[in-house]
Every structure is written in C-alpha cells, then in structure tokens.
Fold each of these.
Amino acid sequence: MLAALVVYYTLPVLASRRRRDIPGPFLATFTNFWLFYQCRRKKRSLAVELAHKKYGKFVRIQPNHISIAAVDAIQAIYGHGNGFLKSDYYDAFAGPKHRSIFNTRDRDEHSRKRRAVSHIFSAKSVGQFEQYICNNIRIFVGKWNGLCDRQQTEVEATYAQIDALPWFSYLSFDIIGDLAFGAPFGMLSSEDDLADACKTVDAAPTCVAAIEVLNRQGEVSATLGCYPQLKPFSKYFPDTFFQYGVEAIDNMAGIAIERVKRRLNPDVLTKNTRVDMLAKLMESRDEHGDKLSRDELITESLTFLVAGSNTTAVTLCSVLYFVVSTPGVLERLQGAIDEAVSPGADIPSFDMVKHVSYLQWVIWETFRVHSAFSLGLPRQIPKGNAPVDICEQTFYPGDVLSVPTYTLHHSTDIWGPDAEAFIPERWDPTTRLTTHQKDAFMPFGVGPRACIGRNLAEMELKCIVAAVFRNFEFKLEQDIRMDYREGFIRKPSSLKWVEASWDKHGSAYQKL
Ligand code: HEM
C-alpha cells in the first residue's frame, strides 16, 4: 500500500523532470494537492492569479501542469491544428457509460459529436429558439412586476427588494429546459428551485433542488478533476462536500433521465410540434449512421442543460451588479435600449437589440471582469507529438498547459491601470480597444473545443438584459462588494440586496 502511494505521488514528478526549472508553489512541484486544495476552497483562479504575481509568466500548478499567463500562448495551446487534447481533468466530469461532446478527450470522437450537433446551434436554428426565450422572459418580467406590486402595496416601499440570483437561475433553467426538452421546468411559475429526477429510466420521479444540485456537481467535479482517479472513492471522503457532491452528480443525471423519458413518451412524441434540441439530437447519426441510443441522448442533453443554464444565470447576475453599482452605466444603458426598442415593446426582440453597441460593451465587460470561466482550461500535449516551443519555453508530450483566463482578463499590462474597474467604454473600437486586448479576451474559449452555444448565449443575454433594464429601475441600498465562489465556473454567492421598481415602463406593461 505504502509503495503504491509512493509511486502514485512520485510518478508525476519524474514525468515532469524536464520542467522542474519552472517555479510554483512548493506543494505543486511534487503533488496535485496544491491545486486540489485551492479548488476545494473554491478559489482556484484567485490562487493561480496570486501565484503568477509571485512567480511570473510561467507557474507550475501541478507537477505536470504549467499555467502560462501570456496572450501569445492562447493560440498555441487552444488553437486549431496543434493537436492538443483535453487533459484527464475532464475525466471527473464523465459519466459511467458515455462521454459527451464536452468531456470526451478523444479528437475523432469529439469531431464526430461536434459535427452531429452543430446544426442545433446554427444561426437558423438559434433563430427558431427566440420565441421560446421571449416567452420565458415575459413570465420573468411578469413575476418581478408582481413582486414590485406586492411590496409596494404591503409595505408601501417605492422599491421592492429582490434576491436576483435565484430568479436569474429560474429563468435560465426554464429557458434551457424549454429549448432542450420542449417544455420549461416551471421554476418561474412555481417560484421555486424544483425539478423532477429519476434514478433510472424505470424509476418513479422524485423532486430535487436543481440549481443547488448543479452548483454542487460543478464544484465537486472541478475539484476531483485534480485527482480523477479518486472519483469512485470520493463519496467515502470524510467531508460532506464530496458526499453531497457525488449525490448531486447522480441527481443531475436523474433530471436529464426524467426529461428524456417524458419527451420520448409515445403520447408526447406524436403530439409534439416543437423543434427542440432533443428532437434535433434524435435526427443525429453516430459514426455508423445509426441513431443515438437513449443513453447517448441523455448524456448529450445533460451537457446542454449543464452548459446552458448556470453560465447564463451567473453572467446575468453580474451584469445587474456591475450596471447598478457603477456610476453612469445604468442611465447610459437604459438610454441606449430605449432608443433601439419600439414603443410598447416591453420584451424586446433580438432584432431590436442585437446591434446596440452599449449593450454589447456591457456584456463583454461583464465577461471580462466577472469571467464565468475563470480557470485555465487544461490541455495536454499528446504522447507521440513533437516537443513544442511556447513563449520561448519547450514543452513535451504529456505536459499539461493552460492559460489562466481570470489572470489575463485582469492583467494591468493588457487592460491598463484601471483593469479592475468596470468600464464598458473600453470596448469602443474607435477609441481604446487594442488588438492585443481582443486577443486576450476568451469568455467562450478558443479553438475546436470553444463553446458551441455561443450564438444562443449571446442572443439570450441581449434579450434578457434589454428586457430587465427596459422594464425596471434599480438601485443598490448599500455600498456592497459581490462575493464569488468558484466551481467549474465562477459564481456570485448571491445578489440579495438589489432593489427594483417597475415604475419606469410599468404603465405600458401588460401584467400577467
Ligand atoms: C454565458 C454563457 C456561456 C459561456 C460563458 C460559455 C463558455 C464556454 C466555454 C469557455 C467552453 C469551453 C469549456 C472547456 O474547454 O472546458 C464552453 C463549452 C461548451 N459550451 Fe458554453 N458557454 C455559455 C453558454 C452555453 C450555452 C447556452 C450552451 C448550449 C446549450 C453551451 C454549450 C456548450 C457546449 C456543448 C460546450 C462543449 C463544446 C465542445 O467541447 O465542443 N454553452 N462554453
């Protein structure tokens, strides 16, 4: 046993002997435990950022993993044609039966999957989704109007206090449920974080708190990614973070099992007239020209659910926080939206808002400062590849490399001395924006493994942000700083204190 442990811990060190000249936190030079610990603290990207400040451009964050804080490294590591693969970090995200488009590490399998689902995210297909997105936004705005009405009547407040994060999560879940499975989860209407889940296809459904489950599964998978071999044993760790996390992974899969089961019910199938993601997945063929099995449908639709819900919700929450807390931004954004949106259109269409520059800058600046994906996404140089030179350092097959997104998005060398500040105007191409900054900006990743849902996410964000600021006035009661915690994505802990009033355009709004 002892010998096995010694081999387990020293192998990565021996494998990385050529890279020992690269500095890093002492623990990280011979064990994965340093990174594991930072993930468990939910502070990975901040810890890596501090390490770069201390050690410079190259930092060893695991024995075989080098973080490179340099714009020049982005294309070299993530770009098309270099052959780098996702590292074993992604094994912690994989289910027992099938790999999904997101967690497969095999290049050919990934290309096949990407080809099979790319039509779901084409401009035409995303255009078909808009009506369902707008229906859910209408319910959301109606609910916030109701909250404003209630609090204005009951406590005679001018503004209603709103806990914004759960509301944005209900909205994002309902939208992705609607787009992926042909019906929303109903979180907005029930005003609750509840979804049905089945342990197996034949099991009866039980209710789970979907948003909580998603958060826990992201955090535990992001942590176990540092020791993917330990995943099967993690439920025995003496830490409830792992026990609840492993349960959450099963429950998350259970939500997809239940939704696919419901959607494939012959009664629903024959009456269905909707073109949802699942219907499109059912048209896809594998490498042998066969349709995807039920298990594969569950795996891929679960990926859409996970990838397309929290990412949008946390970004919306950050947009609201930054816009309301930065002097002058709320007024300028509302002015730009009002100018573009037709009178009486309380739920703006994408056509009305897609070219509003200030709205675009606000969203980009939120992506930069908040960085939903803050961690350096790890890529491995495949065995059999030739050594590669990046930023005048040579790296070898087996080495894992990443570019820390948070560090680049906050670098004063790239963005100037005001890098920490929220300044939408920095995206004005006629004044400040430089090519170097554009190259350093990677909210959706880069290269063959970049986000396939980008068009959908951008449409969703523009329509929701425009509707929110068109319909409500906001203020923050106190001078507050938003706290974040990091799983696979970086999330606000809450935004409880935002206050909304519907008197801006309330009279024009048809209450539900
Ligand atoms: C604000 C919203 C979003 C952001 C910031 C975002 C960002 C990203 C990033 C950085 C990646 C690369 C992850 C990695 O390399 O490990 C990714 C992958 C992916 N995203 Fe998104 N995403 C968003 C919304 C969505 C939506 C709405 C969907 C669709 C349902 C989606 C589906 C996917 C999929 C399927 C992948 C894996 C792609 C592949 O490996 O080929 N994402 N996303």
Amino acid sequence: MANPKEVELLGLWVSPFVRRVEWALKLKGIAYDYIEEDILNKSALLLRLNPVHQKVPVLVHGGRVICESFLILEYIDETWKQSPLLPQDPYDRATARFWASVAEGQLLRNAWIALCSEGEEKERAIEFATEALGHIEGVIEGKAFFGGEGIGYLDLAIGWVCHWLPVWDELGSMKICDPAKFPAMVAWTSRFVEHPVIKENLPPRDKMVVYFRNMRSQIMASKGHA
Ligand SMILES: N[C@@H](CCC(=O)N[C@@H](CS)C(=O)NCC(=O)O)C(=O)O
C-alpha cells in the first residue's frame, strides 16, 4: 500500500495555479516531492493522473490524486488542520469561495485575454478585469489580509495579482492593477509578498517576462496579429 504520508506535486515553475498549492503546503509545513512538468510535452505520468484536463497542478497524497488548484487547497486544509486556510464559519467559507471564483473567472481570465489580444477585445477584457478588481478592492479595504490577520485561502487564490499581474500589465502595455484606483489592493500585495513563505516561493521575474512574452507572441500570431 502507498505510504499515506507521501505527498507529490506535479507542477510548472511559472504557473500561478501551482504556486498557490506550494504556498499552502509550505504554510502548513507539509514536506512534498516536486515534479516539474513540460506542458508542451506532457509526461505519461501527468496524462495518467489527470486524464480529464491534462493540467498541473496535480497533488498525489498516499497514491490518491487530486486535481484543480482550488480543490487541492481545500483538500490540504481539510487533511492537515494546522494553520487553517479557510474560515471556520460556514458563511465566511462560502464567501471566501465566492470571491476566489470571481477572481479566477473574471479577473484572471480577463487579464489573460487582455494580455493576448488587441483592439476592442483587449479594451473589453481590461474593462471586465478592472470591474472585478474594483469588487475585490471592496473586500480587502480595512483588512490586513483577505483571511483577516494572516494569510488564508482567498489570499492564496488571489496571490497571483502580486507577481503575475504586474508582468502581464507590463507586457500588455496596460495597467489593470492601478495604484490610484486600487490602493487597498496594492497595499495588500506589498504585505502578501513580504511573507517569507510567499517571498521565497515566487518565480524569478526576468524569467517570467521571457516566458510570457514568448507565449503572448505565439498566441497573437495564431490570432493573426503581428
Ligand atoms: N483550473 C486549473 C488551471 C490549471 C492550468 O491551467 N494549468 C496550466 C499551467 S499554468 C496547464 O497545465 N496547462 C496545460 C494545458 O493547458 O494543456 C487549476 O486551477 O488547477
């Protein structure tokens, strides 16, 4: 039988979805083996473990497989109770999940579309992303972290805004996370990246710029943009 304590993570260095899982494991002090995937040449292991989406992150715990980063965060929180990530109160838990889904479905999705598009499509995506960020600004106002005094589930869910969004903003010549419009979010990003677990587990910015610049060029070329 598989060792029930054994934890493995299939990941990709530049993925915000993978990093949020790593942050959770590290905040809780869970040791794990990390396996880097090449998503352009997916391993037989990844295809076997995540045949439905064929994406990282994939967590394997004692031989059992969990896919999808938000579900992995919930699994980690329920399996290792120390340093809880989700709030205890059911209403607060539902609210945290709601905002995580808004941040993913509206902010992240549209920030990515804005990065990889031009003209009207880009403008519309920036508008949707900005609107979502405005709602999220209202949630963080007056708080140190989305989780209250410390980092919680929603901080990890939105954490990509601190390190990925500025790179996308730069490469896409846009300013979705504008300090003049979203001062509370910008203050939160500074607090979030100062946490040692986050600070020590961010991909190098210069490598990210190269990676996303190439990815953007390929996507733009496939859409017929220069
Ligand atoms: N909703 C997924 C998204 C995961 C995702 O998109 N992962 C990317 C890496 S950043 C991937 O594996 N892409 C491979 C592919 O699209 O074929 C999650 O939250 O885990």
Amino acid sequence: MTATHSAEKKRYYEAAPQDIDVENFRKVIESRRSVRKFTDKAIPADVLDACLDLALLAPNSSNLQPWTFYVVQTPATKKQLIKACLGQLAAKTASELIVCVARTDRLDEMAKRNISEFPFPEAPPAVQKYYKFIPYNYKTGYFNALGNFKKVAFKVARKLDKQLPVTAFNEADAKLWASKTTALACENLVLALRAYGFDSCMMEGFDEPLVNKILGLNNQQYPVMVIGAGERAVDGVFFPQYRFDRDLFIQKV
Ligand SMILES: Cc1cc2nc3c(=O)[nH]c(=O)nc-3n(C[C@H](O)[C@H](O)[C@H](O)COP(=O)(O)O)c2cc1C
C-alpha cells in the first residue's frame, strides 16, 4: 500500500448521523403492507426514480451489484407481464410493475468497475487484488468445471481446518447468491415507496419461463420477484398484519 493509500485510509471517516427520526422509520416499516389493489393514480416519474435509486443503495455481496430492475411501462409488455403474474389483482391494478432480476452474467464487468470507479484516486492494491479474485468465488465455469474443482478444493482445505467463505459450487448456488442480494434491494424499494406515500406488493407468483421470455433474459438472469406499485386502494389491504410469536424466530445464543 502506498503512502497516499494508507493516509487516505486513516483520514477517511464517514459520520453516522444521530438525528434520525426513529418514529418515522418505524412508521415506514410498520405501515408497509402487501397491497393487492391499487388506485389508478400514477407514481410521479421523479418519485419512482428516487425509490429505484434508494433500492440500488442496498448492501450487496462484494459490491458486485448483481441485479437489474426492469420497469415495465410499455402497454403491450405490461399486458403480457400481468398474464405472467397469473393475472393477480396486485399486478392488474398496479400503476408500475418492476421485475427484479438477479444476475450472474456481469461478474467480471462489475469487478472491473469496482477497481476503475473506486472512490479514491486509485483503488488500493488490496482492493485490486480482491476484485481480480472474487468473480471466481461466484463463477462455476463451463460444465460446472470450476464449481466441481472448488468442491474438492474446499473439502481438502476444511480437513486442514481452513475457514472458507460462501462460494458457488454450482449454478443453483450462484443463483441463490445473486438472489439474496437482489432481495435486499427489493426491500429497499418497497420501503422507499412507502416513505413517499405509495405502496407495493412483492410477487413471486409468476410464471418464470414466461417472464424470461417477455424480457428476453439469458440463462444467468433470474427474475426474483415482480413488484407491483402504486397508491393503495381503500380496499387494497385484505386483512390486518400478523406475525407469530417472536420466540419462534429469535434465539439469543
Ligand atoms: C418473495 C415474496 C413473494 C410474494 N409473492 C406474493 C404473490 O405472488 N402474491 C401476493 O399477493 N403476495 C405475495 N407476497 C406477499 C406476502 O404474501 C406477504 O408479504 C405476507 O403475507 C405478509 O403480509 P404483509 O406483506 O402485508 O406484511 C410475497 C412476498 C414475498 C416476500
């Protein structure tokens, strides 16, 4: 690491704002519901863009940003998408339909961008090294050759008491990796919509091959969910929100 890098590393500090209104934060989370019926009020383009920008701020694995959000606005495509969403009311009445796609086909490009767009004048050598290696952690190679190689290598390394990170041993692992991260952006998106006074319904009730066909997705692009968004109709929420006892889900160990 050069002198400049270490100086920058020491100098850089980002303050954590302390003046956040927790009550409003709670209100956003607690008032988000899955809305199954929307009014025909449009979401202003600037509001939708602001929400999408907030979605893109979600934490994501290695900052590789393995996602694309298709905002489907062409009437003919929207009609096809509603059909692919099994004609759900939430899709039919939504003023916007957003297909949230996880993807593993841009790993190299995104790794390179992490080097070229690193927010210091030059990416530190450790960062450069990391991004040269990390795509292989999530790639599986032709005929899963790399995935199979990693499987054996990891098995051997674990026998030697080495601790190893989550990796992709096959296509399903890679899909899971990208989907995990994409779902976080989806949550950002629906909370942002709520904060701007709009609502949403996450939908995985859709015909995946049909969505792939409508959007022309390749076999390394996976629609994780379709988000219907708009203004909540008075009868848009069908029942009060409920969750089971927190002891079922939280374990302090
Ligand atoms: C990944 C995912 C997929 C979902 N798919 C659908 C769907 O296809 N149709 C639907 O009406 N609701 C769908 N939902 C909404 C859930 O049913 C809803 O979040 C859950 O019942 C809790 O209700 P709440 O969101 O109002 O708190 C989905 C939610 C998630 C997170």
